[in-house]
């Protein structure tokens, strides 16, 4: 089977007349053929058809050098272009040396391909968040704060930050700015009492902002727009003491409210009693005035009655003086027909007996004569 497999390779791609078929077959079969066997094989198989195929040809576009030139030129042009985003500025280094005096602004720019290196730096307004900075106050209490700093990089500071701070072209805002924020914040909190931090929060933030802004301008020419203290976390010991103080204050306020309520109720009772006393006094004064008025009225009435009686008596006296028998007239006018039981005389009271019941009929003519 191995020999047959070797002879099966006789169908090879050759040019007619350029390669001997017998030798090609023997070489393809991997046999060391004897010259006599080779001659006999050639005589017997000279009419044997041989499979021939055309030799592979290279693509035509590979034979055109202009195509390679165009591709190479396009690749070099692509490598020569770089884009600066609207929020960035960039610098270009060539063999470690900065090639321009000013940074590149936003847009499309050119550089030498494979030689120049472009360094980008964000210059737009940005916020740096610094979390969980541990501060110690003047009364040895720790406080954890989170700070947010809003800043921007001026164009004049781009080259300084790219090539004069840290590794060339690799300025890290967090690595360079965060230690300064922590240091300046610790200096400010070290002068504060823990219990007054919440009350002076805005003042503390302004002091930290001014200190950080001054230092970053000196070192990196950064422009600090604002700085906020986003969170303040107190130690558990301080939080417990504040809670106890708040509870005590609330209890004191509740007790004071109770005292004020009792005072208010007592004041209400006093005012009510005073009102009742004033009402009683007013009522007594009214009664007094009413009594005085009533007494005056009664006195006036008695006086008027007395005057009227005196006038009446005077008139009666004058009537009696003028008509002596007027008394008998009045007596007869007022007599009810019943004789008196006694009669007053010079010797005392004498009983008066009516022996004649028809006496009134006798007396009647006397009265008529008097009239």
Brief overview, please?
The chain is α+β, with helices and mostly antiparallel strands and 371 residues long. The protein is built from 10 helices and 10 strands. The longest helix is centred in the last third of the chain and has 87 residues, at 236-322.
Radius of gyration: 71 Å
Mean pLDDT figure = 77
Kindly estimate the percentage of residues that lie in beta strands according to DSSP: 15-25%
CATH homologous superfamily label of the largest domain: Band 7 domain
N-to-C CA distance: 203 Å
What helical percentage do the residues reach?
40-55%
Give the low-confidence spans: 1-32, 361-371
Number of helices: 10
Biggest sheet, spatial arrangement of strands? 3-2-5
CATH topology of the largest domain: Tetrahydropterin Synthase, Chain A
Total E-strand runs? 10
For this structure, the quaternary state is single chain
Order of helices and strands: HHHHEEEEEEEHHHEHHEEH
Query: What's the number of domains?
Result: 5
Structural class, by secondary structure, is alpha+beta
CATH architecture of the largest domain: 2-Layer Sandwich
């Amino acid at each position: 089977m191995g020999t047959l497999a070797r002879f099966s390779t006789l169908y090879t791609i050759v040019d007619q007349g350029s390669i001997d078929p017998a030798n090609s077959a023997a070489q393809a079969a991997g046999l060391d053929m004897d010259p006599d066997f080779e001659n006999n094989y050639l005589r017997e198989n000279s009419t044997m058809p041989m499979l021939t195929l055309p030799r592979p040809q290279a693509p035509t576009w590979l034979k055109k050098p202009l195509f390679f030139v165009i591709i190479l030129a396009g690749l070099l042009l692509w490598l020569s272009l770089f884009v600066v985003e609207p929020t960035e500025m960039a610098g270009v280094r060539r063999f470690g040396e900065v090639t321009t005096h000013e940074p590149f602004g936003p847009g499309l720019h050119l550089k030498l391909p494979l030689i120049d290196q472009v360094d980008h730096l964000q210059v737009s307004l940005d916020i740096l968040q610094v979390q969980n900075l541990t501060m110690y106050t003047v009364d040895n209490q720790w406080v954890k704060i989170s700070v947010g700093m809003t800043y921007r990089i001026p164009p004049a500071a781009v080259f300084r930050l790219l090539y004069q701070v840290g590794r060339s072209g690799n300025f890290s805002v967090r690595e360079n700015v965060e230690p300064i924020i922590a240091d300046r914040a610790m200096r400010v909190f070290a002068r504060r009492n823990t219990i007054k931090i919440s009350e002076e929060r805005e003042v503390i933030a302004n002091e930290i902002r001014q200190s950080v802004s001054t230092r970053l301008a000196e070192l990196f020419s950064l422009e600090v727009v604002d700085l906020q203290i986003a969170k303040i976390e107190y130690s558990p010991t301080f939080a417990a003491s504040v809670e106890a103080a708040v509870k005590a204050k609330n209890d004191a306020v509740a007790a004071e409210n109770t005292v004020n309520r009792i005072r208010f109720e007592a004041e209400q009772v006093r005012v009510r009693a005073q009102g009742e006393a004033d009402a009683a006094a007013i009522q007594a004064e009214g009664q007094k005035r009413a009594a005085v008025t009533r007494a005056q009225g009664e006195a006036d009435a008695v006086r008027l009655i007395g005057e009227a009686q005196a006038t009446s008596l005077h008139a009666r006296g004058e009537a009696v003086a003028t008509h002596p028998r007027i008394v008998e007239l009045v007596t007869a006018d007022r007599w009810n027909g019943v004789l008196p039981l006694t009669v007053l005389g010079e010797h005392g009271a004498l009983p008066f007996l009516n022996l004649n019941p028809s006496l009134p009929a006798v007396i009647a003519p006397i009265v008529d004569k008097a009239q």
